[in-house]
Amino acid sequence: MRKYDLEFKKEVVRKYLSGQSIAAISRETGVNENVLHRWKQQMIVKDGEPESSFRVFDDPPIWRKLLIS
Known about the structure:
This protein is mostly helical. The chain has one domain (6-68): Arc Repressor Mutant, subunit A (Orthogonal Bundle). It has 4 helices and 2 strands. The chain has helices at 6-17, 22-29, 33-43, 60-68; strands at residues 44-46, 54-56. The protein has a two-stranded antiparallel ribbon with strand order 1-2. The longest helix has 12 residues, at 6-17. The chain starts with 5 loop residues before the first helix and ends with a helix.
């Protein structure tokens, strides 16, 4: 199983937030769509209702702490 660094994952999620589909990103990067969906769920925090207000977390460990609390 291939390992991806945090910067690569954040860049992929930014592509999604800029409007690229998961399918297109998967084709471009060779990463399975299910993996991309998981990264998206792990790295996006909702600031408001519309998706345009989503942002990429810079520190997933903090996000995990917020999820637990």
